[in-house]
Write a structure and sequence with these properties.
The protein is built from four helices and ten strands; from the N terminus they run H-H-H-E-E-E-E-E-E-E-E-E-E-H. By secondary structure, the chain is an alpha+beta fold. Belongs to the cytochrome c oxidase subunit 2 family.
């Protein structure tokens, strides 16, 4: 959960989010190196007198042609690797279907016979002490920890977006279309997200709460809810 003075990402709770944070730090270091080099060259040009060697030098032209290509490769390769990892969905342990409505979510556990529920934001008047305002729901999405979860996302009316930052997940919910994503939670906990696509007057009031729990807790919860 992010706090008011936080400038960086939330703590990563999935392997994909860990890779995204590492790539972000890698890209920042590349940008820092470029800015340092440019500032050094600007200071050098201001302090030194121009000569024919600096104005016309094939070696310098060769360097400033090859160097940007190397930098782009350094950014492109890890970026493509993460993109392929995010698209890879291979034999999930559980499939969850999220359907966006104005302005709530419907969840279907397709591996179970009758496990479907709606998830509404809890109004402030009904909020238990210690819970987060505008982020808590009446029914949380409970998933088994360290299991490969596939999420099929769609919408019933307008565009929505199912996003949980700490899991590295953001998938658009489009009426008449099924999009899918996947994630693996690496630790137990409660992870908060929100609809990330402007979908009407109450767009800010359709939060997402994912609870990662041990397998035996998930089995007890699913049997209790489906009975």
């Amino acid at each position: 959960m992010a706090n008011h003075t936080q400038f960086g990402f939330q703590d990563a709770s999935s392997p994909i989010m860990e890779e995204l944070v590492e790539f972000h730090d890698h890209a920042l270091m590349v940008a820092l190196a470029i800015c340092s080099l440019v500032l050094y060259l600007l200071a050098l040009m201001l302090m030194e007198k121009l000569s024919s060697n600096t104005v016309d030098a094939q070696e310098v032209e060769l360097v400033w042609t090859i160097l940007p290509a190397i930098v782009l490769i350094m950014l492109a390769l890890p970026s493509l690797q993460i993109l392929y990892m995010m698209d890879e969905i291979d034999e999930p342990n559980l499939t969850l279907k999220a359907i966006g409505h104005q302005w709530y979510w419907t969840y279907e556990y397709t591996d179970f016979k009758d496990l479907t529920f709606d998830s509404y934001m809890l109004p402030t008047t009904d909020l238990p002490l210690g819970n987060f305002r505008l982020l808590e729901v009446d029914h949380r999405v409970v998933i088994p920890m360290e299991s490969h979860i596939r999420v099929i996302v769609t919408a019933d009316d307008v565009l929505h977006s199912w996003a949980v930052p700490s899991l590295g997940v953001k998938t658009d919910a489009i009426p008449g279309r099924l999009n899918q994503t996947s994630f693996i939670t690496t630790r137990p906990g409660i992870f908060y997200g929100q609809c990330s696509e402007i979908c009407g007057a109450n767009h800010s009031f359709m939060p997402i709460v994912v609870e990662s729990a041990p397998l035996n807790h998930f089995e007890n919860w699913s049997s209790l809810l489906s009975s």
